[in-house]
Amino acid sequence: MVIDLHVHTTKGGYDSILSLPQLIEEVERRGLDGVCVTEHNSVWGREELERFTSDHDVILVEGMEVETDVGHIVILGLDRYISGIHKASELRRIADEIGGFLIAVHPFRRFFDSEELGLKPVRSWSQVSEEAIALPILGVVDEIEVLNGCCTERENSLALQMARRLGLRGTAGSDAHSRHGIGCFSTIFEREIRDERDLIAELKAGRFYPAQRLLGGEMMPCNGEAPPG
């Protein structure tokens, strides 16, 4: 099953121009099986999502992208914002309590900005790797988003290498805020996903892999080769 694990609609804030009906229409047009709707610090509500999909063969799973003190983390399994989860340690505690799942999304966004702007010397790959693996967010989550539609190829490559180093499979999502880009990166699941419970179970079981959508529509698995240097 092909599921885009990172999409935003207009309900999640000012930065999205994608309505839920538009999202469903685009998901069907692109041949995806479903998406995880990950609004910023808020949720749609499971019943409302089910109402929108009642006449469609599309799976919409509720998630929340929480802005924490160590970076942005998507939590699956939580049905509302709870005071205090802006602290990653509290978000981790809540996730464990409810049987949820945490994904660090775009963990290395802007990680290379300073050297690309000439503000810092260019680091070797070994230096980059050691700095990256030390980021606190990596010690809090269950998985790392390794393909994000709003990140650079270099940022995604680093995320993939850190996932491999930590023994993680890595997830993928478009981070779409409009029709454009939905499903450009998606997570492929080996078994059928019918709802949020199935999604969390399959993520915990590790029966998935990240993939990129090619121009012809086919999905290409991520290979995980390290860049030179």
Tell me about this structure.
This protein has 229 residues and is of the alpha/beta class. The chain has one domain: TIM Barrel (Alpha-Beta Barrel). 29% of the residues lie in helices and 24% in strands. The chain contains seven helices and ten strands. The protein has helices spanning 20-30, 46-53, 88-98, 113-116, 125-133, 153-165, 196-205, and strands at 2-7, 34-40, 59-68, 71-76, 101-104, 143-148, 171-173, 185-189, 208-213, 219-221. A ten-stranded mixed beta sheet has the order 7-6-5-4-3-2-1-8-9-10. α5 (125-133) crosses α6 (153-165). The protein is globular, with a radius of gyration of 17 Å.
What's the topology here?
Layout: E1 2-7, H1 20-30, E2 34-40, H2 46-53, E3 59-68, E4 71-76, H3 88-98, E5 101-104, H4 113-116, H5 125-133, E6 143-148, H6 153-165, E7 171-173, E8 185-189, H7 196-205, E9 208-213, E10 219-221
Parallel strand pairs: 1-2, 2-3, 5-6, 6-7
Antiparallel strand pairs: 1-8, 3-4, 4-5, 8-9, 9-10
Distance, first to last CA: 36 Å
Q: Kindly state the mean pLDDT as a whole number?
A: 93
Order of helices and strands: EHEHEEHEHHEHEEHEE
Any idea how many domains?
A: 1
Level-2 CATH architecture: Alpha-Beta Barrel
Describe the largest sheet: 10 strands, mixed
Q: Round the Cα radius of gyration to an integer and report it.
A: 17 Å
Low-pLDDT residue intervals, each spanning 5 or more residues: 224-229
The number of helical runs is: 7
CATH topology: TIM Barrel
Name of the CATH homologous superfamily: Metal-dependent hydrolases
Helix content: 25-40%
Beta-strand content = 15-25%
Overall 3D form:
globular
By helix and strand content, what is the structural category? alpha/beta
